[in-house]
């Protein structure tokens, strides 16, 4: 049980951190012309773009605004909450 709990908690924390990284990446995309922001974006892009591209193929940018990022963040939050609720029910059942 301890190993399962460790894996679930680690996944939840990973998703939380990844969600923050996505938010930072999206916010910095508004400042692409600034050199300091470009440096951070170039570091975060290989981490976030493969995931964001999945949602960009579903929802293309409309009017220059990338709404797919909202869907990507919501998916991370949904998965995080799903794991947390599943873990709660597993541990309550005595798994």
Number of strands: 0
Report the structural category. mainly alpha
In whole angstroms, how far apart are the ends?
Answer: 6 Å
The average pLDDT score comes to 87
Identify low-pLDDT runs: none
- Rg of Cα set: 16 Å
What percent of the residues sit in helical stretches (DSSP H or I)? over 70%
Please state the oligomeric state of the protein chains shown.
Answer: single chain
Helical region count?
A: 3
Main sheet: strands, sense, barrel: none
Overall domain count: 1
Give the overall form. elongated
- Strand residue content: under 5%
State the order of secondary-structure elements, H for helix, E for strand.
HHH
């Amino acid at each position: 049980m301890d190993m399962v709990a460790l894996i679930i908690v680690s996944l939840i924390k990973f998703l939380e951190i990844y969600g923050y990284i996505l938010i930072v990446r999206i916010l910095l995309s508004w400042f692409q012309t600034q050199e300091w922001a470009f440096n951070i974006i170039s570091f975060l892009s290989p981490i976030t773009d493969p995931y964001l591209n999945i949602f960009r193929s579903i929802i293309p940018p409309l009017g220059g605004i990338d709404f797919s990022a909202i869907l990507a963040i919501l998916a991370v939050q949904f998965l995080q909450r799903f794991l947390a609720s599943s873990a709660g029910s597993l541990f309550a059942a005595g798994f």
